[in-house]
Structure of Fosfomycin resistance glutathione transferase:
Amino acid sequence: MLTGLNHLTLAVTDLNRSVAFYQDLLQLQLEASWDTGAYLSLPGLWLCLSLDPLRESAPAADYTHYAFSIGATDFPLFVEHLRSVNVPEWRDNRSEGASFYFLDPDGHKLEAHVGDLASRLAACRQRPYAGMKFFDDQ
């Protein structure tokens, strides 16, 4: 039986640049590094960066992305800081809770989001998506 998400691995084209982005800019804890990779962490997240010089650095056209949690009081300063160093944005927020959608140096789509599943479901109960069904009130 699955118990949770174990880790996330992102292919990167420049390991030092990516470690600096995730460690210095996003404040993940650097746990280990080697010639072709690094492990970083946040509470509840183990992130592996894996060197792949053949990776295309352009953002994918689809909506696949990775969202980080952030507190409401930290959100404005976080967004201001990323904008001040010209981190590219890839989308405007269209959902419940404050969100900032941005790209890492390899074009991975990321999001900083204020809220959680409970707050999202509460908002969806007020304004459900087309065809939405809820399964907790059976």
Q: What stands out?
A: The first helix runs from residue 15 to 25. The CA atoms of residues 1 and 7 lie 16 Å apart. The beta strands are 8-12, 29-34, 37-42, 45-51, 66-69, 89-91, 99-103, 109-113. The chain is about 20% helix and 30% strand.
